[in-house]
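[09:14] KT: can someone run the structure on this one? pasting the chain below
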Amino acid sequence: MKKLLITGAALTALIGTPALAADMALKAPPPPPPAPLSWTGFYLGLDAGAAWARDDVSPTIADGGTFPRSNRLRSSGILGGGTVGYNFQAGSVVFGVEGDFGGMGIGTQKADVLGGTEIDQINSGFYADATGRLGFLATNAILLYGKGGYAFYDGKANTTTAIPGFAVGNSSTFNNGWTAGGGIEYKMTANWSSKIEYLYYDFGSQTATLTGAAGVFPYTNHLKVNTLKFGLNYAFH
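[09:31] RB: done, structure tokens below
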């Protein structure tokens, strides 16, 4: 009886060994770790967000109202457009150049309570910037960055009056400004990334005029805008 049991156990072991070997052979090896994400290369993007503007309007000579004085216009609106840029990566440092372009819906007007019948106005318009960008990788997929450079805005400003006989002269475009800010960009895949970005724009000063029989009255406009936007970029690797 004992010999019979031993013989049965041996046969079971011999039958089970090939099955076990076959099971081991069918198991796939563990997948290799994912390749590190690359930030180097050319990219294009789209973005949209909000803008908060402030235009300080001041007469540069006495015009019949309180002098000196300043009328502050505030407005908020949407902005949206595109992005183009190029990144270089050196370890955990990412740097490059970037340009933004689009439209800002910040048009508004406000009566100057210290200027009699005068009403100051700022228009919505097209904006663009050209900046340098420098960032550091918090992880392989998360970039924290700052940027700054030149900014352009083609919106104009003017001051009108209900007094007859005055001709309104629009300001020139606000084309000599600067911008600075930063954001967070997240690589969702090797090519696609999303971002949230804050930028402050100082578009400089331009002068609008009212011209009448008594002369030319200039009004300086100094425009500043805070923006917050969300974007989606595609990188060409």
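[09:33] KT: thanks! The CA atoms of residues 31 and 74 lie 57 Å apart.
[09:34] RB: yep, looked fine to me
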